[in-house]
Description:
Largest sheet: 2 strands, antiparallel
Distance between the termini: 35 Å
CATH class of the largest domain: Mainly Alpha
CATH architecture of the largest domain: Up-down Bundle
Amino acid sequence: MSDGQLTWRFPKAFWFANLIELFERAAYYGMFIALTLYLTRNVGFTDIETGWVVAWFAALLYLAPIFTGALADKMGFRRALILAFSVLTLGYLLLGAVPTKLSAVLSLALILIGGSFVKPVVSGTVAKTTDEVNRARGYSLFYQMVNIGAFGGKTIAKPLRTELGLEYINFYAASMAFVALLVVIFFYKNVDTTGEGKSFREILDGLKRVLTNIRFMALILIVAGFWTIQGQLYATMPKYTLRLVGEQAAPEWLANVNPLVVVLFVVPITHLVRKLRPVSSIGIALAIIPLSAFSISLSPVLESLTGQSVNFFGLFSLHPITVMLIVGIALQGLAECFLSPRYYEFASKQAPKGEEGLYMGYSHIHTFFAWLFGFAISGYLLDAYCPDPKTLTPEQMIHAYDHAHYIWYYYAGIGLGALVLLLFYRWITDRIDRKHMGRPGID
């Protein structure tokens, strides 16, 4: 601890927890960017089946930590991490080694269980090894590790896919999880959690109160519209890119455009909108996000102007679909810069007085709804507009992808709908606040 002094010096447990997070994120995002491809190509699920399998896996991964976090408090952080990374290593290894439908579902269940322990334990370690003075710095380092790990995992996934095969991405993820396990066993020292943690009854009671709060849940579902589009980086974009551009394309690297934009612009944008009301900043994000999807849909327009290659000053050339994906993904990252810093501030003010902590603990469940809906609908849209080439005859292939860009019209519509609902939500809550409290609406 820092003894009340502002410093970058933290206990060893803090640094090893962050190192663990880096390895875990590298494993997870390397696997996740290629998961829909692997389940369809190697395992044999259809696009629709893949959509539903990954929808439940990804959604539950954001809900389960509510319960596993409490269990980790009772087990002790070190034991919880040893269990988590043992299960993760086995899950990733089994996913790559046995490409059958039953084995894949079992593997994803193991990855879900293991992964759901890591986030609450690592973030809890950061909280316990920092104080009020240095907590912001501690979490800034933590989120840097998250981004570095995610960026690295997606970067290495491309050469693994093209040079060795999709299954080797899972073997890579297993090796990262195993290295993290070794770090925990030999270097991670337990932090004291004696007498802490909620009972499962308390967790269920809290969840019930949150889910039955119409005002809070309405905000959650509106923001889920934003993350539904963001989730297409993993749900739709990999298959869309490879089927339309070819195996030489790099959807894994395209996905990294998003975190790159966030890292570069989140600080200046947060400073720029600091005087805006939080709901106004969220509104800007929800105005940008449908434009991101719509811009991707414009690739046929660009291709009609440039042909199948867009030349950049004679230095390099890209396929028109790749160019518009970069534009769209960059806009997603820009929208996230307006949303993320202000969403939690706004959400906390929608909670009943005195229950802000409880409600903020559940404020991330927008991702549960976004991933569940976003991945499920992705399977149907791919099947309709950008089908698996293995299911098509040579004659069907000629015009099979003529309307593939229609997929992005649906997501643009979802984003536009979220914006309209936010404006309506703001209008309704303002009226309620003025009526019952005699003051302006909550910002």
